Design the sequence.
């Protein structure tokens, strides 16, 4: 423990934190926005930046930076990060007083796992930045490791003082401060009740990162499956077919909020691969009572929930039999 007043330290001087995200399907952006809310517990004032259009030279004025970046295709930067990364590679040593840490999102099914995050980690160091916490490389189940990384990285970044120096002896106190354990100022009963016993880790579990399906869709799907158990064998059955197909880029596919995924029921084999890859809970399996099918999972077809589909194309990318296409809503 330090003899520094951690409450005063966390609330005085420059407390800016800059969170940059490189995102193809929305995962990195969602994490960045969630961490922005969490930063308040550490006395930080976080700003979230889309890498698209971000001025690389503005980093020279920043003392605290978190970067979360996904990897697209075969080790490529997501679309919104390409230009900024190219600028960063050639900008030189412009970071003289900047502390950073990287969260990389990827898929171990690819040879160049989390390559974009690894590239940013090296480039930030080449630019003169100081790595305050080691990079984390997250697989498709990224929520837990990303959360643990955030807790550790943010507690250290919060210990960068007004002059841009990292005060490592304050980290333990800062962790306690973020949990509400060291708050000594008198507060109203309502505020005390809000702070006591709420750790940053626990608070992250109180809100969902992704969208929930509207109740009308939940009711419709429940009625459709008639209490049948959803299939569990589809992913393994489609794995071999999908291994090669998943490497094909989808840059030629239309995507965005003006488009929606559509399923060709004649082609759909009910493998559930699209359900597994959808980040927005926009796909469910419904029973079609196909008497010609013998396997339980093959009697179910994918249903796209148009209320929550964001047109990201991941389901079309995942489908091993090209049963999903992107169509204009207009």
Sequence:
């Amino acid at each position: 423990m330090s003899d520094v007043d951690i409450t005063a330290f966390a609330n005085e001087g420059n407390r800016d934190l800059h969170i940059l995200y490189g995102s193809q399907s929305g995962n990195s952006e969602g994490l960045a926005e969630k961490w922005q809310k969490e930063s308040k517990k550490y006395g930080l004032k976080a700003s979230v930046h889309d890498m698209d259009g971000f001025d690389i030279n503005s980093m020279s004025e920043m003392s605290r930076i978190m970067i979360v970046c996904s990897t697209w295709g075969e080790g490529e930067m997501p679309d919104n990060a390409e230009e900024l990364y190219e600028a960063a590679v050639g900008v030189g040593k412009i970071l003289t007083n900047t502390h950073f840490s990287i969260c990389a999102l990827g898929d171990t099914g690819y040879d160049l796992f989390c390559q974009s995050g690894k590239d940013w980690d090296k480039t930030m160091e080449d630019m003169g930045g100081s790595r305050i916490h080691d990079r984390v490389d997250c697989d498709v189940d990224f929520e837990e490791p990303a959360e643990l990384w955030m807790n550790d990285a943010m507690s250290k970044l919060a210990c960068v003082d007004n002059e841009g120096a990292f005060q490592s002896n304050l980290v333990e106190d800062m962790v306690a401060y973020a949990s509400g354990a060291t708050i000594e100022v008198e507060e109203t009963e309502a505020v005390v009740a809000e702070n006591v016993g709420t750790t940053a880790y626990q608070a992250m579990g109180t809100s969902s990162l992704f969208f929930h399906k509207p109740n009308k869709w939940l009711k419709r799907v429940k009625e459709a499956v008639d209490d049948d158990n959803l299939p569990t064998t589809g992913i393994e059955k489609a794995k071999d077919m999908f291994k090669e197909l998943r490497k094909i880029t989808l840059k030629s596919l239309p995507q965005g909020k003006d488009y929606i995924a559509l399923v060709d029921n004649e082609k759909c084999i009910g493998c559930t691969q699209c359900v597994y890859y959808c980040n927005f809970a926009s796909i469910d399996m419904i029973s079609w009572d196909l008497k010609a099918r013998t396997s339980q999972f093959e009697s179910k077809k994918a249903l796209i929930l148009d209320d929550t589909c964001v047109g990201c194309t991941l389901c079309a990318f995942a489908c091993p039999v090209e049963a999903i296409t992107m169509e204009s809503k207009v």
Observations:
- The longest strand covers residues 16-22.
- Residues 143-157 form the longest helix (15 residues).
